[in-house]
Amino acid sequence: MAIRNLLFEHRLVPGIEEIDVYEKHGGYEGLRKAVTLERQAVIDEVKTSGLRGRGGAGFPTWIKWNGLPKNTDKPHYIICNADEGEPGTYKDRELMLKLPHLLVEGMIIAGYAGLGTAGYIYIRGEYVEPAWQVRKAIDQAYKKGYLGKNILGIEGFNYDLYVHMGAGSYECGEESALMSSLMGERGNPRLKAPHAPLPVHEGVWKSPTLVNNVETYCAATWILKNGGAEYAKLGTERSKGTKIISVSGHIAKPANYEIEMGTPLLELLEAAGGVTGGKLKAVIPGGSSVQIVPADKLAGINLDYESCSANGTLLGSGGFMVFNDTTDIVLLMKRTSEFYMHESCGKCTPCREGTRWLFKILDRITSGSGREGDIEMLLDICSQIDGRSYCGLGDAAAWPIVGAIKAFREEFEYWIAHKRSPVGDHAVPPTPVVVNPLLTLTPA
Amino acid sequence: MAESVTSNIREPQPAPVKESRFSELAIAELEEIASHYPERKAACLPALWIAQREYEGYLPPAAIQEVADRLGLSYSEVEGVATFYTMYNLRKRGRHHLEVCTCLTCAVKGAYEVVHKLEKELGVHVGQTTADGEFTLSEAECLDFCGAATVMQVGDKYFTQLTPENVVKVIDELRNSPDYTPAKLADSIVKVLVPGASEQGGGSFSAEDLKNPAGAML
Fold it and tell me: ipTM value of the model?
């Protein structure tokens, strides 16, 4: 177990972002192998690998690929979700920056298997530098004949790839909101199956659309090059292969670590140099949307989808945040709820109003005006958001707060009773913060 | 009662002035980008980026009108898009827009100390612009470079591993540099969208090593 560099195998090779160097290290072999197979055989290879979506939900990738119609009555669009926005996660940033051809190759393979007409890589607006590397990689791939008309000499395999830049919205990382944004609209989510057709039947421009995360496409490249069976040798029974975990917070060596699925959480913590600045207090293993785990519950958790959810948290997108004992959990949750309040798109009431109420109550508690019954009110609001919002953002706003109250209820009670931090005056994040964030967020 | 009702009615808004500030190059860029999509409307976000560059870093009503005209959309449709995304500036920003990430990891790694230091150093609060128009200070939601906390975005660049001490050095560097403006950010994004453009944008700098763009890579 532990660190296992598949996608990251060549990340330290100088110049690996250039196509010549990439090809010297086995680049575009996956694509060359893929085009010798029938399209269905490519999808079967992904099925054999057991690859599941790396954006956070863990949905089996091959089912999406297989769901695309086998005819081309309408154009098919292949989309890469590179709108990485989850607090704590920065794996896609590094993949695009260092290994852009891994992504481009994966998108071409998906285009071949899914009868793609065009592909779009939706990158968040802030990621100018990673986007540059991806665009450069696309330019180089066109020159080598991996993109364009009759790719690799295959009659009728025409496929174009474009970069699309976002403009600052966490919500656009949600599949249906991303599609709205790609079509030039506000990034609002849409109705989902069973109330509306699946994206693979009717996505952007009412055409079949495939949406996957950056890491998923990169893994598909590896799988086509080395074989699905080889990938499936790694990991656990239901979580195959590797996962890139972005480690940050109070940790000696913050970085992206590619680990084999099922690696014990504590093993990764040790590999990253251990906690700094105090004793370990808690870990958020999968980005801000998942439940926080106190230090005494960490033993026994393995980093795979099943073990995490069996232990009351989620692997999510792999944003692994470590907190030492100077961290005030209530203040941390207040900052978390501020994030979701700011990023809620405003389309549905439970999320638009609920995220504001959560923030206001947590702000009240942490400014010394907490009241009896506030904890119950928080839990009540969370239960009214969870499962009742248009998209997952509402759920993601509720889960961390429910998790924090479950694990650290005494800290919330201490705040309400004593009107100060149980951790002391030097707690992080500090309080008071900048005046009232409701008023101080960026003016439009 | 009648009074309170009428007071809620919005004054008639002046029609946006028609301006045509898109250069020939900008129009060519827009047409190239629009050709990437099956529908012209999809070029709305890129067109707003072009407009933000052509209108010197923000989107006055005239800019939104010009985008609407060029794409064949209504003013309100484009305004709806422009108001949704935080990176489109509806008001003028300072020459440098300092966006300090204060989300989870950055917050526990001292982002608020950096913000307070900047407030003191520049004499403004978060959300305000200095009197000389040099700096606008903002809090940003997660910039997703958490391993290098605290992170600040200025123009198309990231400054990483900031502390209250080294952020002062960054400010000094910015005062003397023309490279970090909101218009530059928009320009870099537009150049990403146009295939074949060769001049590279973006970058991340460790505050300890301002001259070395690779300094803070993890």
Answer: 0.94
